[in-house]
Every structure is written in C-alpha cells, then in structure tokens.
Amino acid sequence: xxxxxxxxxxxxxxxxxxxxxxxxxxxxxxxxxxxxxxxxxxxxxxxxxxxxxxxxxxxxxxxxxxxxxxxxxxxxxxxxxxxxxxxxxxxxxxxxxxxxxxxxxxxxxxxxxxxxxxxxxxxxxxxxxxxxxxxxxxxxxxxxxxxxxxxxxxxxxxxxxxxxxxxxxxxxxxxxxxxxxxxxxxxxxxxxxxxxxxxxxxxxxxxxxxxxxxxxxxxxxxxxxxxxxxxxxxxxxxxxxxxxxxxxxxxxxxxxxxxxxxxxxxxxxxxxxxxxxxxxxxxxxxxxxxxxxxxxxxxxxxxxxxxxxxxxxxxxxxxxxxxx
Length: 324
What we know:
The protein is mainly beta. The chain has two domains: about 10-140, Lipocalin (Beta Barrel); about 170-290, Thrombin, subunit H (Beta Barrel), CATH 2.40.10. Helix content is about 0%, strand content about 45%. The protein is built from no helices and 26 strands. About 40% of the residues are buried.
C-alpha cells in the first residue's frame, strides 16, 4: 500500500525566508512546520519549492524537542541562518546541511540584515549580548548597537498585535491619529511602507462600517478613501479591518463578513480601484492572521496550519503549504 501523505501544518513564527533554494529562478519558502507522528506533534524548519510547494529538505533542531519561537530563519549571502534557544546555526541553502554554529548567551529575539550588508546577520539577544554573525566564516563578534531598522520596538499601547512579526517590512501602529482627519472616518490602525500610510477604521458616528484610506508620501490629504469593499455594507462585520499590506502598486486588506468568513481584497495603490476580492478558505481560523507577505507577484496568506499562495494579479490560488 502507498504510504499516507505526510500530515504537516504551517506554523507562522516570525518571518519565513523567501529565497531561491534550488536555483530554478522561483523564490522558494523556508519556515516552520509541525508534523504529527502518532499523537505527538514535532516542529521543525523546512524548505518548500515555490513552484510545486513540495518539501525540498527539513532540518530538525539540535537543542530540545522541537523548533520553538526561538527558531528563526533568514537568508543571507546564499546561505541560511537559523537561530535556536542558545545557538545560531549556518545552513547550506540547497540541502539544509549544517555548516557551523555560534553559541548565544541567552534566547534570540530577532535576526536582521543590516542595511547594505551582504554577508552578515545581526542577532538580537534577550540579555542584550547582541552579535553580528558572519555567514562566510560562521563566526560572530559582539554588536551591542542595533543596526538601522533592526531593533525590535517595545510593546506599548500602540502595538497592533503582539503576534505580528517584528521582521515584517511594513510597520503597524494602533492609532486614532491619521495624517489628516477624514470626516466620518474613525481610524484604528495605521500601516506604513515606502512613505505610504494605509489607515484602517470604521465609520463614525452611526452604525460602524469598515473603512480604508490611503495617504501618499509627503501629502497629508488622503489620495482616496472608501468602504473596505463594494459589497452591501450590511453584509460587512461592523469592526475595523486588522490586516492589510502595501506593495509598490496595490494595497491588500483582509475583512470579515457579518455572517462569518473572511475576504481578501486588492485595490490599486493610486486610485483605490478594486482589482479583485476573494473569499479565504472557510475552515481556517483567521484570528491567527496578523500579516500578509507580498513577494514577486504573489500574496502569501498565513492561515491556521496553512500558508496560502495567491496570484497577486488575479487573486487566484497558486498552491499552499500545510493542511487543507
């Protein structure tokens, strides 16, 4: 009999690494997965082909039973850097084979590539004994000061969601102060990337309706603002959207329907025109969804147990990693 297909779940912990692992010109995906063997789940890091979504290799952690929130991955200089509870490892990108390691004094909080650096990864450590890890030699030197853009902001009332990965290039803050007020628009979240600000909020006063607005760099007046979708407002859940993303030519927003279910909509960055609006798979808990990853003509949607890949131009499903 044919062996049963492996049951794996995608586990969103920090940022996946999007990098061409097998040299076919398509970005592949390296991140956390959970596998059920018998009843006990185990977590590990695995690489998946960006064309077929089949597993290319896996790397079990050397410390402790499984890959935890301390296990982070980042691609640099044609290699993969992976942290564990008290270690940073250098892995061969094509195979996941370990090439070297450096001990840490405490748990890693974040891996970050300093701006303009092509060979090193900065390792933020909980006890502030931060390191700069050299991917050429698998050695490290103390680096107490965070490179620009690498420090993890402290939790505060402005934090959008504690589960949102600090590594995400788009920043998010909980705020009721957009660049300028829009009459009848109560802002709850501000997302910022490349000088653009995406405001997510609700209509006020009156029955709450989810609204979106976009502000361009250096312009306090909104470029456009609208109800989140062109559906009948009575069909929309009366809360502000919580998840959005800004790319070079579009914005993407996740919104909920009153009767349940989530949708993802793409709008033109400059005009707000709707390109597509698709339902996300029903069976998944979208409450776990905190970010979207927009890469090379794709939108990756990390759902509970599943990383969904959509065509950014059409919203069509390309494939995915994890349970269906």
